Amino acid sequence: MIKSLTPITLATLLALTTPLAAQESETAQTGSTAEATGQAGGSTADQVLDLGQTVGETEPQIGDRYAKETHGDWDLACVRTENGQDPCSLLQILKDPNDNPMAEFSLFRIAPNGGQAVAGATIIVPLETLLPAGISISIDGAPAKRYNFRFCAPIGCVAQIGLTQADIDAFKKGSEAKVSLRPEAAPDQLVEMPMSLKGFTAGFGAVDVVQQ
Asked: Looking at the chain, which runs of residues are DSSP E strands?
């Protein structure tokens, strides 16, 4: 299961721990099952022997984000809803040169509406980013496109960008993109995070279309 981001900085990693509430719910269910078995008068062997528990990820709960499919280096990340119509986006966690998770890139398609954007993406980066410098994306060494940040929240600073058909075509043809930003504490330094484009074409075809 893909966990939501928690507050991040350039010095910390993304937290990927299971929500406490989900753990408590699982514990309560296990306890209730054991209690019911005892009341029903299980066999002596069942009462004495440890029958074990299945080890692995629990079923996503309402509001949890999980990976429905994997396309190369991209996840089709969905959010569990009550009606079962879980909205999905194309997700990749970006890392710094030391392989530490630093940011996330989440993409969705946009239904044709006469505008230039055929897709949109939300990029979340650390709070210690130099905002006036914006965020840049370059594909296979081509000239970069620069985007502005929209807002900052406890989870990080967010850029909400539009992607044209030419941008998407470049993503499909490319092998790697570089997402770049500058730290506020060291504006002369450029932090480049590689973003693999392996599996992007198949993933883009599977992602949800959002009506604008």
From this structure: 65-71, 74-79, 88-95, 101-110, 117-125, 135-139, 145-147, 151-153, 156-164, 176-181, 191-196, 209-210
